[in-house]
Amino acid sequence: MTIRNVRDHGQRYRPRMSCLKKMEAVVLEMQDPKTGVKSQTQRLVITTIPHAITGEDIVEWIANRFKIDAAEARAMGTMMVAFGYIYPLQDHKRLILKPDTSLYRFQTPYFWPAQQWPVEDTDYAIYLAKRNIRKKGLLELHEQEQYNNLHKWMNHKWDFIVMQAKEQYRAGKERKKPDRVVFDCQERAYWVVHRPPPGTISGMDCGLERMVDPNQEEIIFTQQCIMRPRVKSSVSIGALVKYTTTYKQHDPFLYPCLPSNPWLTDDVTYWHLNMPNVENPTKMRVERWTFSFGELLSDPRGRADFRLFLKKEFSGENLAFWEACEDLKWGAAATMQEKAQQIYKTFLARGAPRWINIDGKTMEITVKGLSHPHRYVLDAAQTHIYMLMKKDSYGRYLKSPVFKETQKKAVAPEAHKFSEAQLEQNAKKRRPSLSPIILRQQEEEQKAKLAASGPVDITQVMSKLAQKKATEPEQKT
Amino acid sequence: MPVDWGADMGKDECKTMLDALNKVTACYRHLVSALGSTSDSQNLREELKKTRKKAQELAVANRTKLTALLKDKSISNDDRAEYERLWVLFTSSMEILEVDMKRSLEIGQSFPLKVPTRHFIQTGMTGSTTTVAARAMSVQNMKYEADASIDTADLKDLETEIAQVDQMMEEMEMKVQVAPWAVEAKQEAGAELKSTVSVGNSSVGVISVCEEEPKEGGEGEAGLMKVFAGIIFTAVLLIAGILGYLVINL
């Protein structure tokens, strides 16, 4: 009993064999007496056999049917020959389509390549035995080698193979001469495809037999892609349009930036006016803060303004907490533990000096996570506070006197109008900007100042209120 | 030794039945290879049906006989080895038969006879397969009595028969414990050449007709003939030259 079903597994993971069904459809079309390929008779020494087709007819038919050029039609024809749907009558070992008068013939459906019918070695052994009978023991070299191999490892079936070969040979002789010739050619062509002579490549070569699907990961990935929620294009395009209309005047590529684009005129006023910690921002910059809360927070000047506003409202701890979380996320791993503890002590613990107001569930998750702190342990709380600020404080900020003051004092520089000579002058006066090291130092200094001067204790806020009123004009800068 | 004589009888009977099954399997394969081609016809479908039925009868008969023989515990070791060999012959035949039946179902379904838009593949085979079927059925001439709808009606029968064969093979696997790889073949490599010496002239013609490229195998023989002819020719020339010389000189 041969082990039967093991081979099936490998067959299923060869998707490129799905071309076979399509080729069968094409072959069937070629058979139509009116619209199919023209057939001729093959004249041999004694007999004539019908249904021979020339290579050029095949190429022409394919080119007409699929509206492709001759080279592609030839390639397609070669594929059909390589798979064994058509076999050459002359030069039968080279499975290519020659676009001249060389003759070909269609293969019978029994010998068509099929994925579900694996090519058995038993059949090959029977074929070789039959050939041995026909050629009186003079097989070709590779056939002889295969024969010996098969005899060795299929030895237990050898009696059967011999018996069956003899019977098939005798059964074949029962047919008329032309049919016999055709059948021999068919069988030979079939085995050239499936057991190619050495040095030739087989069209049916599918690589190693696989037990496991190598494309499994890709399949899972594509299945998940299909299941992803999709946005209607009207919605996504609407969002894109909204973004572009909002930001178009702020894009230096589309609109001239004021006073002038430093890259074009070599005049660095624009950069000086838009420094991170400038006292009076430009009007455009202030306008950007109104677009979204994210814009406000990502601009250091905007954040400073917002911080000022929150100080007045006595809800500065939200922003401080948010900044501390950012620091934890992007900071060095060595100080992470320490920072997390500090944050907990300052913002989250009961009776903490700057206690933030988050809901019970988030607090629970955060406190639990803090027992094993990692970079993103405060993510939930941070998101909560961010949304709180966005929905609540941001709206009030935009209507507040702080913001209105900033807006009033905002600078709207005039556009520069440089002449050619002035442009040349500017080019000569080009100097490198401040070194990033210095900029970083400035940033650090700013941070330190903030940490030192910011209100720390909510309990002390009342006493500080009076002090603040006195120092207001100074703090406004 | 009535037991041995009975066993010998059993063996011979088995062998004849297996030979018959073998013959029918080979013929069935020939017939199936003609399906879908231009030599397909209503007759072919009927031939397939009849051959199939015969094959099944033989299969059942063989199976009962062989299982009975193998179940008998009182046989000698040599006998047992022989029966196992016959068993392997039987199962191999059945496997080929099963695959051919499944394929004939598939091809029969894709190539119905009466649909005018469905053309048969022009394979170059135009003759009928009557003689092959006659060989399978061991009759002189085949009689055709089926009606026109045989191609569709037969397919249902075929499906049930395939299921039956599947079931039979499963039962066989369960009931009979034979290790096929342990069987040693009696024939050695090249055994098929021995009894087919009387190949006949017609097949020689077939060889020369099918091979349209230079014969590698035949070259040895042809070369020998050429050398021989060359030797004779030169010998004749020499003799002619010597005679001429003698005539001139004498």
From TrEMBL, chain A:
SMART domains: DEP, G_gamma, GGL, RGS
A biological-process GO annotation: regulation of G protein-coupled receptor signaling pathway
Domain DEP: 33-108
Membrane topology: Peripheral membrane protein
A molecular function GO annotation: GTPase activator activity
Residue intervals of the RGS domain: 292-407
Xref: Pfam families: DEP (PF00610), G-gamma (PF00631), RGS (PF00615), RGS_DHEX (PF18148)
Top-rank taxon: Eukaryota
GO cellular component annotations of the record: cytoplasm; neuron projection; plasma membrane
Broad class of the protein's primary localization: membrane
Record's subcellular location: Membrane
Keyword annotations of the record: Membrane, Sensory transduction, Signal transduction inhibitor, Vision
Keyword check for Membrane: yes
Designated name of the protein: Regulator of G-protein signaling 9
Lineage: Eukaryota, Metazoa, Chordata, Craniata, Vertebrata
From TrEMBL, chain B:
Alphabetized UniProt keyword annotations: Membrane, Signal transduction inhibitor, Transmembrane, Transmembrane helix
GO terms under biological process: negative regulation of signal transduction
Top-level taxon of origin: Eukaryota
InterPro entries: RGS7BP/RGS9BP
Sequence intervals crossing the membrane: 227-248
Family: Belongs to the RGS7BP/RGS9BP family.
Protein name as catalogued: Regulator of G protein signaling 9 binding protein
Species of the source: Pygocentrus nattereri
